[in-house]
Each structure stands twice: as structure tokens, then as C-alpha cells.
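Bench notes, afternoon.
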Amino acid sequence: MLLLLLLLLLLLLLVLLLVLLPPLAMLRQQRSQGPRLSWLAGLQYRVAWEVLCWAAAWQQWRLEQSTLHVGQSQQQTLRWCLKEDQGPRCSLRGSTDMTTFRNHLPLTKATQAQEEESEGKLLPPTSNQHHGEASLQATLLGLAALNKAYPEVLAPGGMACVTPTSPWPHPLPWPWHALSQVSCPGSKAPGALLLEALRSPGLRALAAGTAVELLDIFLGLEANGEELAEAIAAGNPGAPLPRRAAELREALEQGPRGLALRLWPKMQVAVTLDAGGQAEAVAALGALWCQGLAFFSPAYAASGGVMGLNLWPEQPHGVYILTPGAPLIELLPVREGDREEAAATVLLAEAQKGKEYELVLTDHASLTRCCLGDVVQVVGAYNQCPVVRFVGRLGQTLSVRGEDMSEDVFSEALGRAVVQWPGAKLLDHGCAESSILDSSGGSAPHYEVFVALRGLRNLSEENRDKLDHCLQEVSPCYKSLRFRGSVGPARVHLVGQGAFRELREALAACPSSGFPPEMPRVLRHRHLAQLLQSRVVS
């Protein structure tokens, strides 16, 4: 009994320590002009780190148990979904048979942008982070994996988040705010967050909600560099930073390539959350501003929640474990070529290496089996759970004559074309079928393609034609339709700087917008396509 009381007393002291230390440490640091952390802040960091290690070890044990017995784990998830359901299908609560579950709940399709938008209805705003066990597990294990691969990233002042949204799927509980971050996301404008990061030359990691948001940050840094330098030179009261302002100006004068490492010489990794449509932003950042840095996404997230978690920061391309917990995940095989859906789903333990599957999600809130449109390929296994990489999205298919040009095939063709445009680097792109913009004008239907480029201010007709030739190379069906004249040549338009940022702002204002903000490549709504059309410069 005495031992229990002593343990409770110790726990209470730790809680009081963590509650009181932030303001005390802040006060101490304001008084101290030295570069070293105060002993109070250091103590707070050590306590927070010990709590994080303990929580991550617990989540790792839970992951091992659930992935070793994935069939049992998915049955438990099914029972939980049925138990929580309060809707008209609550009669299924007594059954945990997966076949019965599938028969009673037919598959439904996720719409491209929800019909409520076109009807002018407003839906409640969605949360910008996925609260729940899966998101907490992905966050804790992601932090542990990041620390293992880059040990100094989570040291005090080692990481800064430059966007209001965070790459971590679950908000960090308050004891762990002491870990690494120069500032806490969610409370400041991007400009203020970037300014704080620029004042910290010793950063080892840069965090942003998604890769496209980080790309916007660097584009904004270049556009507003002088204003930021003046703000840094002014500094805080009594603490001007003219030398750092001069370093910023000098780094910007040398151009975008390697800018992050010039600003933060100790930088090692950029942390962003993987979602649909992020690959081009990652490629552009890696080739220019973040050249020499690794990229790490702690989780793969979709509109329904966290789908998978990443334990391998050192891998150049994100791979994710599909976990058997809530929400319930099934896999729908897709056929080769046209990727038409197969008849029945499979569970996680039944996934085959090398095969492609569409993710199917069942959430307890609505008890609806929804095909998300996200296609993944199985590249390995973690115990009995599949390890996957993201391939593309079925909803991002172009089809003016039934050719079904998939997202990854079009991106491959566009990549081939951009390589042939001298000095050009692709930053972003969007497409629309000609019927959306009524641009056929009596001619054959075609693709309208909008691109944002770096290093090229004008597109010649010869360069524009190269995309159509590359599309014919990657798609025999498209080539046949072009040969017969059933489909017209793709029309390529260069848009000005900031056009896609405005598109993302318009998407964020849509009722169907959620987090993570997927970047659509095929625009189905006229007002979105017209927005890019109005920003064409060549």
C-alpha cells in the first residue's frame, strides 16, 4: 500500500513538473542571453522524452500483436464497428461473419467532389486531423522511427513546422510539445511560422502539413524574401538579427537549388503527410529547394482516416503498413490494363505481393463500405499485414472517348514531355476534359492541360505537341483514337505563379474539403477549371 502511494505521489510530481515547467522555462530563457537551454527546459525535455519512449514502446507492442493475428484483429474491428452503429443496420450487431457483413453491406463509390457542392449545400467542416487510435499509433511510432533514423532531429529546437496544419495525424499531447519544435502548429499564420523557422539556423527537420503546402511555402519565401529579411533584421525587442537577415538574402540570390541547406546547414529531413496528388510537389522540392534532404511521411491518410503507417524514414519512397484496427480496411483487386474492379474484396491477410488493390473503408459512424478510389500495390509484408505503396486514384481518370487515361499513366507521359522542354521543371498540373470548358468548338474532344513550370516562361507549339506524342507512346488506346481522329490533340497551357495555390484555396472552401487535402489532377467542376484557365500566361 505504501509503495502504491509513493508511485502515485511520484506521478503527481511529474504532472506538476510538466505543467509548471513550460512557463518557468520560458521565463528563464527570456532572462538568459546564452545559447544553452535552461536546466528547467532541459528537464522538461527529458521527462517528455521518457514519456514518449514509453508510449511508443506500448504502441509498438500493440502493433506486433495485431499484425501477428491480423484475421482476429479485423474480426474485433468488425465487432467494434457493429457495436458502435446506431443506424438502420444495427440488426447486424449480433453477426461477426465477414461474408454476412459483405452481403448485407454492398460496396458504394466515393464521389469525386460530392453532389452537395454543385447543389450549393453547405456541409459541416471536417476536422483537419484524424483523431483516434490509428492516428495516435502512427504519430507515436512515426516519431520513434524518425528519431532512430535521424537521432538529433527531435533534440530541443531541432524541428519547425511552417504550416498551420501538422504532418502528424494526431495532435501531440501537451507533455510532448517540449520535443524539438521551434513552434507549435495550428495557432499562427504560415508567414509567422516561416519567420520563426528562418530565425533558427540550427534546424535539422522542416515539417509541413503536405508536400504541396511546403512547396507553397518555398515559393512564397522567394516572392517575399526581402520582406522576411527586413522582419528578421528588426528582430524581437532587444534582439536584432542583422547577420541572419544577410544570410537569407545571400541564400536567395543563389537561386532555388539547395536553398533549404543554405538556410539550415544541419537540415536532414522534410516531414510531410502523404495524400493523393503529392508526388509532383515532392519531386519538385527534391530537385530544387530541398535538394539533398530526405522526405518522410509518418502515415498515409485519406478522407476516411489513417490507412497505413510508415516505420522506414530512410526509404526514398514512402511505404506503409495497412493496419488491421479501426477503420476496417478491405482490398478490392483491380484488373490489369483497364483496372476495372473485381467481384469481391479480400482481407489484409489475403493480399498478394505485386498485386494492385483499391482501398475499401468501413467506418463505424455510418457503417458504409466505401471504395475510396485510392489504388495501392503490395510490395511486402509486416508479419501478416501487407506493406504497400501508393499508385494512383481511380477517380482521376481522363476519358473523352472511353480511353480511360489513368492518373499514373498520364503523369508518366507528362514527365516524359517535360524532360524534353529545355530548362523546365514541373511544379504542378491539372487537367480537364474539353466538355467541362466547352472548348471543342465543333472539333474532336480533347484534354485541356494546365501546367506550372520553373525555368520556362513560354511554351512553343513544338513543346506543346510533345505531350500529345508522349500520351500516344504510353497509351495504345489513345494513340488509336488519335489516328482515327476521334480524339483531338491535347492542348497545353502554362499558368502563372500562384495559380495552383489559388486552386487549393478554392478547393479548401468546397463543402467536400477535408484533411489531408488531396490535390485533384482531373477537374470535374467548371468553376475550378475556369480558375486555372483565367491564370494562363502562355
